[in-house]
Amino acid sequence: MTHIVEHFIQKDILRTLSRKGSLPFSALKPPAINNNVFAYHLKALVNANLVIQNNTKYSLTAEGVKYVSRVTRTNLDIQPQPKVFCFLIIENENGEFLLHKRHDQPFLGKYTFPGGALFFGEGLSDLVQRQLLEKTGFMLEMEHKGIANLRLGETDIVTSHTIAHLFYGRITGAPQPHAKDQRFAPAWVKVHNLPQAALLPDVLDILRAIQQHENYFFLDVHMPSQPRKL
User: Fold this and answer.
1) CB 112 within 8 A of CB 100
2) 83-123 pLDDT tens trace
3) How far apart are CA 186 and CA 77, in angstroms?
């Protein structure tokens, strides 16, 4: 679990080192703060592997650099960010799409596409292959069709914000998918036979964009505006 820096002295140390590179204790410590108090907070950052001491100077570790890249520059607060996802839009010869029901909130019980979040440092092609293996069991060539900015909520409040890379592929026949985690249990679904309320709010917009755009596209979906039917 990522260490969260909350104390203002520790935040100031990280902010200073992010701007100055490396500093000795005397230059890093503000004049108004007691030496022992400052040393305590500096040691806490060292123990958290965010700061390292090299000879007489202190600087950010690689983890420290990663941390400051994820927070606001002024206050060093954790900044909520949209998740980066890939969705696998897989169609079979019968015009059915591979969907599964969400097993938790948000949108518990709604049908959506197989997919998953991009890990820190992971390549996009690696993500697609990992999700194919984990969620479908298929070996399938997928085409990167576009990107979607998905801001979704079942009320006026956005509860889910995802930047989704949309990958489309067609498969021969209608082979049985095999997910490693049975919570996902993907199945072939005729989307137009489902009530709109059974689908995640972005499903119809994504399918419509896939069908209408031959070239790479960008899709912006902001709910609670209602998606259009196919």
Assistant:
1) yes
2) 999 999 999 999 999 999 988 888 888 999 999 999 989 99
3) 38
Q: Which residue carries 């998905």 as its tokens? A: 150
Range list of β-strands (E), 171-228 = 187-189, 217-222
Give the containing element (helix H, strand E) for 22: strand 22-24
**Residue 40, helix vs strand vs coil:** helix
The total number of residues written for the chain in this structure: 230
Write the Ramachandran bin of 115: left for phi over 0, alpha for psi from -120 to 50, otherwise beta.
left
Cβ proximity of 202 and 148 under 8 Å: yes
List all residues 6 or more positions away from 16 whose beta carbon is below 8 Å from its beta carbon.
23, 28
What does the block give as tokens for 93?
């010869």
Does the predicted model carry a pTM greater than 0.85? no
Neighbouring CB atoms inside 10 A of 199's CB total 19
Bridge partner list, 215: none
All structural domains of the chain: 8-68 (1.10.10.10), 83-222 (3.90.79.10)
213-225 pLDDT, tens digit each: 999 999 999 876 4
